Structure formats: C-alpha cells, structure tokens
Amino acid sequence: MSLKSIVRELKEMKDGIGNISRRGIEGKHCRGRTRSFVAPDQAPPEAFQQGCWANLPPELLLDIIKRVEASETLWPARTVVLFCASVCKSWREITKEIVKTPEECGRLTFPISLKQPGPRDFPIQCFIRRDRATSTYHLFLGLTPSKDENDKLLLAARKIRRATSTDFVISLVADDFSRASNTYVGKLRSNFLGTKFTIFDSQPPCDVTTLSNTRSSRRFHSKQVSPRVPAFNYSISTITYELNVLRTKGPRRMQCVMHSIPFSSIQEGGTAPTPTSFPHSFDEQKSLSPDSKGKKAITDFSSTGLPELPISPESEPLVLKNKAPRWHEQLQCWCLNFKGRVTVASVKNFQLVAATEPYHNIPVEEQEKVILQFGKIGKDIFTVDYRYPLSAFQAFAISLSSFDTKPACE
Asked: What is the reported pTM?
C-alpha cells in the first residue's frame, strides 16, 4: 500500500472518530465551534483503541509515521500527523516519540508545542488579528493573513476590563474563554495605570516538582469542569513599562522578567524549561478539602494571593529589554530594523533582546539577537516573531501587553 493510500485512509478514519466524538460527547452545540488547528491533547475513544491498524508490526508502524512526519512539514497538510496520533494508543505513543519539539524541528504540532521554546536558529513567524468589536485577539501561524482567511489558529485572547485592572484571558479556541474550561491556558493581568503586567500560566513551571494537592493540575479530560473548581494560575513573568513623567515623545521602554526561564538558558550549553505534556486530570475531591460541617471548602487561588514561583537560587531569571531604536534624521522618527516584517509606524512596535551584564560573558552577537519582535502591518493586523527561549504562549502574552492603554507611559 502506498503512503498516499495510508494517509487517505487515516483521514477517513479520523473523520469517523471526530463525528462520533462530537455526537456522543459534545453534542450539536460545539459543531460550529472555531478551534485551534492544533489537535486536542487527549486519547481517542476506547472503541477505537484496537483494530487492524493497531496490530501493525512496530518496525513498519515506525517507518510509516516517520515518512508521514517528514513529508508534511507545513499546515494544513501537517494535519495528517495528527491523524496518525488519533488512530489508537500505540500509534499515538510512536507519533509523540517521533515528533520533535519546536526547538529541535522549528514546527508546531501538538497543543503542548505552544508552551515549548521556539527554535534557536530562526524565529517562528506569526501574526495577531485584533477584533475591536468583541475585544478579542487571535494568534495565527504564518507570515501574513491569507486571502481566504483560512489561517491556522494557535491561541486566542479576550480583553476584560475591571475596576482596577485589565485581564487578557488566553484560550486554545476562539469562542471559549472560561477559566473552568480545559482550553484555558493562562492570562495576562495589568495594574490600574497599565505600567505593570503579570503573565499567569495554568500549569506550574517545569522546575516545580513538589506541589500540594490543592495546587495540583486543573486539567481535565472532560469538556467542562465543575464551576466550583478554580482555575490555577502560576506567575511566570512580569512586564514593566517605564513611566513617561516628562511626557516626552519617543518609543515605549519595557522590561520583561521571565521568572520561569533561567538566564543560563541563553548561555552556552544552557537549556530552557520544556514541558512535555499538559498536566493530567485529577480527582475533583482532592482539590476540595471537607470542612467541619461536611461541606467542601473552596481554596482561593486568586492571582492576588499567588506568590511568584522562584527559580533555583543558583540561577537568576532571564530579563528581556526592548532594543533601543535609532533616530532617523531624514524621516524624523525612531527606527528599528524589522527586516520587512513591520510596515506601519506605531508606538506599539518593539523588539526584545536579552538584558546582559559584563560578568555574564555573553558574545556580542548573542546580545543583539532579537528574541521577540512585534509590530503593525495593517489595520488591526500585527506580526509576532519569536524564538528560543520563549514559547508561543509567552510571546503572545507579552505582545498583548502592548494593546492595553498606557496613559502614564506615552
């Protein structure tokens, strides 16, 4: 059987599984839902765990999936890799073993790829589409929006204004921003002046190995969890914009302290934390402790009471700063070299590089390497290019901070 025939049968099998799953689990309500192109990180139904495809010799199965993964490197064609992971348990385990992280292959495949560091040698190029009417922001994979608007959704965020702060709730899908949903991945929160932002992740950093039961994972296999179960938020980064007291004209100045990424990650031989999967589901009763009256008490996990999770004492956190622009005499404006990725002048445009000190012994070319750049290319369209050691989730959250009103910084 040819490789094309195998892929065609996998697509038919995947469509069958998807139709049954929607009818049996989600119902008619979710049929028209806009979803991330990255497949959900969950196993197929038990009814499809065994079959003729599950009984293939391991050597043949390994060869088939390797050929499929190597031949389909771009989306939407890369969807067939997800089809392989959805056939049965054995196929899924081998597919997860073959598919490399974005740092190693430069490609996004599974949902967890969005929380893994990008490639070291080149950036992953994305763009954000802003919808002012609904206060939503969508992160897509690609250089620019396609003509048919059939772009690959990575993450979505909704802006929620509060009395003393602003929240950007980040989700894997474009129409479900509930913190009780298993599509919730984190949020960005600002202070009243819009000068300080905190990025919260729904799962703890990789270096945190011991957590109490009440701080265990909130990830569930079900579509919706009990509204009584609070979403967990772990502070992983702080973004600070410098106050413009004199109201002078010029670009914004910002600094990002990445609490979950050690500075050693950009030094020779260093590595950044790389999660391999979302936290597994856990028993709801473990997250709720019974009180003296027999009722289940709810632990408060509000962001105001959450301390920042520390990096190990021997390594300091990575700090990013915006690259200083130069003044162009002829154009009479501040300029940065975005290498053609930004075409519209805006106070929101920025490039982030590592903030280093002489004792760090970082080469000059490494100090000048742009880790994240964000800029405007059209009405409500912005490019986002990120690379190691940032993930797509972290890059998206940092970029969202540029959309909030900052009266004290401009």
From this structure: 0.78
Asked whether 377 and 349 are in contact (CB, 8 A), the reply is: no
**Of 195, 251, 198, which is closest to residue 405 (Cα–Cα)?**
195
Asked if the model's pLDDT at residue 363 lies above 60, the reply is yes
Report the 3 state secondary structure along 1-67: CCHHHHHHHHHHHHHHHHHHHHHHHHCHHHCCCCCCCCCCCCCCCHHHCCCCHHHCCHHHHHHHHHH
8 Å CB contact between 397 and 237: yes
For residue 239, give every residue at least 6 positions away whose Cβ sits within 8 Å of its Cβ, in sequence order, or none: 196, 197, 198, 199, 254, 255, 256, 257, 398, 401
Contact of 201 with 236, CB cutoff 8 Å:
yes
Look at residue 211 in the predicted model and tell me its pLDDT: 37
Block residue for tokens 């495949």? 109
Per-residue model confidence as pLDDT tens digits over 144-203: 888 766 788 999 999 999 988 999 999 999 999 998 888 999 999 999 888 899 999 998
